[in-house]
Design brief:
The longest helix is centred in the last third of the chain and has 25 residues. This protein folds into 2 domains: 116 residues, Nucleotidyltransferase, domain 5, CATH 3.30.420.40; 156 residues, 2-Layer Sandwich (Nucleotidyltransferase, domain 5), CATH 3.30.420.40. The protein has 14 helices and 11 strands. Strand 1 and strand 2 form a beta hairpin. It is of the alpha/beta class and 339 residues long.
Length: 339
């Protein structure tokens, strides 16, 4: 059997498949705070204890693969340490991804553990898209480039949208919008990602729930001299939360409905920022056949999607679809043939 364990920053999801990738069992739980995460993870894995002897391979979603990991990788002691070194680049996610590996190693000591990376889909971005205009010596020494994230979800949504559209994935121009606690957009031309909004870390790009997205780097340089915990501010206290006080889209929409002006302003910033990126990606693609919205907000809030698409005349000949992402199935497909 195949187990896929998706340890997110605020959730733990898992799905158990048989050898034909037929779903046998699944579970999920929302988790807030690192203190309760371990308890929740233990509780979820306990539900799988009866399958200890049957699970042969376990797939783990990893947000950041850095420059060294470009495809699904069997996890061993040496490369686990290399994966841990990437925690600082995705502090909201990778530490929990690592935790999932260590706990499942204890529960399933004979199973093969495989890391599947959100950065894989964007690993071969064109150089003009992935290169930051800073000195070459710094880029080479510190491995600085645009990595992109949510790749598992972007690829899944794009392929599903193409299937619904009944056109080959490799012949379409697609924009995918993964909108959730973290959000990003991708431009896909004939099956290849050519641009994406997130960059070296998951902080860049769109305005998110608690992350600012793209801001003048001078602001960060300026604040780093005045604020000790600038990394925490950027990861946990910015984005919509900084404007409205809400770090969840459902709460934001509820507040807007009640006439909360700060929540309405935050939502306007959020949708405007997405529209701006869609327009840019439409331009670099030279048109767009499909735009697929996915993620908890993208596939869960018709109101937000309608606000984004309203008055965007460039989309009048573009098919707009809402696709519920399934990262666990996508991961399962990537690992099920690994020996």
């Amino acid at each position: 059997m195949i187990l896929v364990l998706n340890c997110g920053s605020q959730s733990i999801k898992w799905k158990l498949f048989d050898g034909s990738l037929e779903l046998k069992k699944e579970g999920s739980v929302r988790v807030f705070g690192s203190r309760s995460y371990e308890k929740a993870l233990i509780a979820e894995l306990a539900k799988l204890k009866q399958y200890q002897g049957e699970v042969k391979i376990i797939g783990h979603r990893f947000v950041h693969g850095g420059s060294k990991f470009s495809k699904p990788t069997v996890i061993k002691k040496d490369n686990l340490k290399k994966l841990e070194e990437l925690n600082k680049l995705a502090p909201l996610h990778n530490p929990f991804n690592i935790l999932g590996v260590k706990f499942s190693q204890g529960m399933f000591p004979r199973a093969k553990q495989v890391a599947v990376f959100d950065t894989e889909f964007f690993f071969d971005l064109p150089e003009k898209a992935s290169t930051y205009p800073i000195p070459l010596s710094l880029r080479q020494k510190y491995g600085i480039k645009k990595f992109g994230f949510h790749g598992i979800s972007h690829e899944y949504a794009a392929r599903e949208a193409a299937e619904i559209f009944k056109r080959p994935f490799q012949k379409l121009k697609i924009i995918t919008c993964h909108l959730g606690g973290g959000s990003s957009i991708a431009a896909i031309n004939k099956g290849q990602a050519i641009e994406t909004s997130m960059g070296f870390t998951p902080l860049g790009g769109l305005v998110m729930m608690t992350r600012p997205g793209d801001i003048d780097p001078g602001v960060i340089a300026y604040l780093s001299e005045k604020v000790k915990n600038i990394n925490d501010v950027l990861n946990y206290e910015s984005g919509l939360k900084a404007i409205s006080g809400f770090d969840d889209m459902k709460d934001t929409l509820a507040a807007v409905k009640k006439g909360n002006k700060k929540a309405k302003f935050a939502l306007d910033i959020y949708t405007y920022n997405i529209q701006k990126h869609i327009g840019a990606y439409y331009a670099i693609l030279g048109g767009c056949d499909l735009i697929a919205f996915t993620g908890a907000i993208g596939s869960g809030s018709t109101k937000v999607v309608n606000m984004i698409c309203k008055d965007m005349l460039i989309l009048k000949n573009t098919r707009v679809l809402s696709i519920k992402t399934n990262e666990e199935v996508a991961i399962g497909k990537k690992i099920w043939r690994i020996k």
